[in-house]
Amino acid sequence: MTIRVALHHRTHYRFDRPVNLSPHEVRLRPAAHCRTLIDSYSLLVLPKRHFINWQQDPYGNWLARLVFPEKSTELSITVDLVAEMTVINPFDFFVEKRAENFPFEYSDDNRRELAAYLELLPVETRFSEWLASARRDLASKPIHTIDFLVALNQRVQRDVQYLIRMEPGVQTPEVTLVRGQGSCRDSGWLLVQALRHFGIAARFASGYLIQLVTDQKSLDGPSGTDKDFTDLHAWAEAYLPG
Question: What is the rounded average pLDDT of the residues 98-106?
Fold first, then answer.
């Protein structure tokens, strides 16, 4: 039986006097390519007197552009959605034969289409050493592409301690590795840049994380959360031919 969950996410500001509200772009709607089925979605904005235009950015992401014609003493943005928590096997896909083993080459068409996802940041000392170590340990000889991705994920998990970081912005890979810790967005961006340096197109993604308590304890690994849990989350997505 499919489990349906209802998510309620509210951001609310109160001001001690009427203020002008600048135009806002709100990116809190699941992407069209989301693999989790969204049964319903709503976005409620206060003050009630506002203009809203739904737009799509060049990457196909939904964004709501809000314009407020009058001053207000509050700003409230509330998302309500119902999602079907169907178990998805992340390895349920085929890879084209030419990309089954790493390293592989994208076709000329793919490389043109993926140019934005292959863009590199300048490499500093610690990140350069980390990449060299990963290349030596993981890619010194041909390896199955999926095994390489799993191993690189494991390496980030091993070398970066997860923490909840309230400061704005995303750390560079250099800062994350020097500190040895970071939030999900920091380790996600590290993984994006690492994949690109290995020639794999990757992008930064963000969304909602919903974790539910399991019915049974795991016999051979962590059982997961001990209470139902929802938060904002970030991760990396990689493109493999096929």
Answer: 95
Structure tokens at 29: 């709607």
Three-class SS of 66-99? EECCCCEEEEEEEEEEEEECCCCCCCCCCCCHHH
Report d(CA 79, CA 28) in Å as an integer: 7
Helix (H) or strand (E) holding 131: helix 125-138
3-state secondary structure of 36: coil
Sheet order of strands, 38-46 included: 4-19, 72-84, 38-46
- Asked if 240 contacts 90 with a C-beta cutoff of 8 angstroms, the reply is no
Look-up of token digits 């509330």: 78
User: If you count DSSP H runs as helices and E runs as strands, how many of each does the chain have, helices first?
Assistant: 5, 12
Helix/strand/coil for 4: strand
Out of 176-185, 188-197, 228-237, which region has the weakest mean confidence (pLDDT)? 228-237
